[in-house]
Amino acid sequence: MPPLSYETLPGDVDHLIADDHAVVERQFQHLEAGRGDRWVLVDQVSFELALHADAEESVVYPAMAEAGGPDEAEHARREHQEMKELLVRLRNSEPGAAEFEQALGTLISSVRHHVAEEEADFLPRFRQLVGAGRMAELGRQFLAAKRTAPTYAHPNAPSGRIGHKVADLAAAAVDKVRDTASGRIKHLATDPSGHLDPQAQRILDAFSGLKPQPPEILTPEQAREQPTQVDAVQQILAEDGRPTHPEPVGSVENVTIPGPGGELPVRIYKPRNATGPVPVVVWVHGGGWVLFTVDTYDASCRGLVNKTGAIVVSPEYRRAPEDVFPAAHDDVLATFRWVRANAGLIGGDPDRVAIGGESVGGTMAAATSWQLEQAGERLPVAQVLVYPLTTGEQFGDSMADAADARPLNRPLLSWMAMHAFEGVPDGAKDPRVDLLSLDATQLTGLPPTLVITDERDVLRSQGEEFARHLDAAGVATTLTCYDGVMHEFFGASAVLDKAQQAQQEAAQHLRDAFQTGVPAFAG
Asked: N or C: which end of the chain has fewer CB within 10 A?
């Protein structure tokens, strides 16, 4: 499902509503195609629609009525009522039963009609009446309403703002007990699409079993407390009776270096039995500029140390919303410059320094190479971009076909951008983020690049498009897409064969570059 026909910012309420629509539409497509886990898909659809409807009824529709559109708001409420009644019918029947399949077919048709009407008429009219300046504040209220919403549809509950304040707390409490008792809560965060290979599916099933809340409706502080795929990998290792300790390397040291915002923590991983100056890789962790730390990506760094024989340096860059764009980018650039100037002090070779990263870590790695090129400085000998974000736009087919993916779906991507660029409305258009805006003359001369993407990832299309841009600019570029896996798969090599393969591919790309010698200067 494409974005809205008019321009919005990621935190605008109409943008958030359209993201929800895209998720549910993709879940409907799985159901219609007969793939995946039918019952889990229906549970997830019911959960998504319950939160979405509650938030619209408590935030959006009252605002629309007050701004001069009471008839439109009432019409939308009536359509929600029909949807809720169908969800109750689904809950009270079983997949395959005639009542279930009839209710599901009617629900899909009804929701699609509602979405088409809402995106073509209601939301543009809403923005016009309420004013574009209120969209971000209403977006924050919309997400806050989701945090306290009941997780099942309640057709008989009041649907106005006051009614929700009275009824939601009691209904949400009952639903929480019901979710736990039924086991539903343990599969709301998995990927039931049927597109993942068995090992990847096991990781997301284990992750979902840890009962994370959807980070895209939480505050950043709350989201940072949620379980991660690292926890899921640890659980699988324990279940299989395998060691859960980190992959051994020569040494790990946390130090601080001078950064643009003060002392900048970095973690230095050294290989075992290193003799003489060895290559260095600056590896940048992901998390949408908001979540995660070097600890979350520890397994990737350890794997690369052992597979390359290089020192790996990973910066603990500043995160949003405490420090918005471009703070993280500035920290990564400062880290690379420090490594290049001080490689000898840590046992590294200043003539063999590469850069790479995962997710927005890949974004910042590529942006660092570009900034060095623009400044006429010595470039990395190579770069590795693992499922990078390369534009702030909702770009390509993957925004629709992976809209519902986990752990990164379309709503979470918008949530991250909302916080990363808070107060910097044009930040996503900066060339350090919108790498697709760079023309061939700006890309020519960048180091040999490996781009790794994956099938179930909203960032897949834009990562592949950036690889095409690099190749067209004459940059030695390799693009590999790993099927049957999800965003954040790269660090799960302990339990995922394709992660092991991807790490080996990244290491080979780096080793090949280290053998060529001195990096080029820009220009």
From this structure: C
pTM exceeds 0.85: yes
Q: Is the pLDDT of residue 518 over 60?
A: no
Question: Rounded to an integer, what distance in angstroms lies between the CA atom of residue 447 and that of residue 445?
Answer: 6
* Residues acting as catalytic residues: 359, 457, 487
What single-letter amino acid sits at 337? Answer: R
How many Å apart are CA 207 and CA 236, to the nearest integer? 10
3-state SS assignment for residue 327 = helix
Q: Among 481, 452, 463, which residue's Cα sits nearest to residue 389? A: 463
Mean pLDDT for the chain overall:
94
- The CA distances from residue 45 to 189, 268, 404, 413, in Å, are 12, 44, 10, 19
C-alpha dist (Å) from residue 270 to 41, 250, 275, 319, 346: 45, 5, 11, 26, 9
Residue the block writes with tokens 């490689």: 343
Rounded Cα distance between 112 and 118, Å, is 10
Nearest to 80 by CA among 54, 44, 119, 48: 54
Does pLDDT of 519 surpass 80?
no
Task: For residue 350, name the pLDDT band (cuts at 50, 70, 90).
Answer: very high
Write out the DSSP string of 115-163.
Answer: HHHIIIIIHHHHHHHH-GGGHHHHHHHHHHHHHTS-SS--TTS--SHHH
Report pLDDT digits (tens) over 216-263: 999 999 999 999 999 999 999 999 999 999 999 999 999 999 999 999
Measured distance CA(208)–CA(228) in Å, rounded: 9
Look at strands 278-284 and 348-358 and give their pairing: parallel
Task: Name the packing angle between helices 497-516 and 198-209 (round to 10°).
Answer: 110
Element (H, E) at 263: strand 262-270
Contact 347, 278 (CB under 8 A): yes
> How many CA atoms, within 13 angstroms, populate the side-chain half-sphere of residue 452?
29
pLDDT at 158: 62
Give strand pairing partners of 259: 262
Distance CA(408)–CA(414), nearest Å, equals 10
Residue closest to 324 by CA, chosen among 214, 219, 463, 428: 428
| Sequence-separated contacts (24+) of 362-365 with Cβ below 8 Å | 362/284, 362/286, 362/386, 362/387, 362/388, 362/389, 362/463, 363/388, 363/389, 363/390, 363/432, 363/433, 363/435, 364/284, 364/317, 364/328, 364/329, 364/332, 364/432, 365/282, 365/284, 365/332
Report the candidate in 290, 313, 409 with the shortest Cα–Cα distance to residue 368: 313
